[in-house]
Amino acid sequence: MNRISISIKILLVVSFVVIFTEIITRFFWHTTAKGIYDIEQISPESCHNVDSNLGFKLKEGHYTYLYKSGFSFSATHAFQGTRICGNEKNASYPRILIFGD
Questions:
Q1: 65-87: string of b/e by CB count within 10 Å (b at 16+)?
Q2: Domain limits, the chain
Q3: How far is CA 57 from CA 41, 46, 52, 65, 69, in A?
Q4: Which of 21, 52, 65, 72 has the fewest CB within 10 Å, making it most exposed?
Q5: Rounded to an integer, what distance in angstroms lies between the CA atom of residue 16 and that of residue 19?
Q6: Could you report how far apart the first and last alpha carbons of the chain are, in Å?
Q7: pTM of the predicted structure, to 2 decimals
């Protein structure tokens, strides 16, 4: 019984330290989760179409994404909303197929 209570006390102390550290860092250093809201600019402007089945579909064209941190990248979308990646396929690379959702 004593060993169980010690492990529970240790678990509670560790949990408290983790939660307290999370609260302090978020409050003082504003370390929140970052994602799509950090995108400062997409040019040309709208790269998405509304689709009744998919929710959204990528528009055809070449787009540049600029983040608030200064990071940027370019993406090319094909006619049916698929991404075009890389230059040429290299036959020496192994072929990897992924099935499923």
A1: eeeeeeeeeeeebeeebeeeeee
A2: 1-32, 34-88
A3: 19, 11, 10, 17, 26
A4: 52
A5: 5
A6: 47
A7: 0.42
